[in-house]
Amino acid sequence: GLSDITSLLRNNFDMELESYIELYVLLFADDTVILAESANELQLALDALQDYCRIWKLKINVDKSKIIRFSKRRTKNLPNFILNGETINIVDTYVYLGTTIKFNGKFVDAKNKQLFQAKRALSSIRSKKEKLQLPLDIYMNLFDTIVLPVLLYGSEVWGYEDSEQLEIFF
Fold first, then answer.
1. What is the pLDDT of residues 72-100, one digit of tens each?
2. Domain residues for 18?
3. For the chain, how are helix, strand and coil distributed in percent, rounded to 5?
């Protein structure tokens, strides 16, 4: 985790990660998310990431890098954020691990996408049930193994207000 990175930098490169910033990051495979509470804190975190990647000879794809500012309304006049000498695009929505995240913290797009895909999966197994005259137990098993995982992917973030559409689906 982050403490391992801090120890590694301190022991091998005489670098104090804390001297840059206290970083809050989410790491999954080759994806990195940096969380910051201010524009200044974010730029410091980007600078620390740039230094870390330079030391370890890692390349950052700035074209794939995005910034999303969470607020109730769209924000204009945000400062430019620089990584490896390039400006990072600021976006209103971002897809992370297959889930669409919006600037306002709502997951309506993610929920609608999962509902659409689940309806397609359900339609597919319904047609197979009719065509092959599958017994109910096999049909239910197909529902549980094909439709349900699609429907519920990312549902942890939908919130209570969005759960009604799940109930209607069933």
1. 888 778 899 999 999 999 999 999 888 88
2. 2-102
3. 50, 15, 30
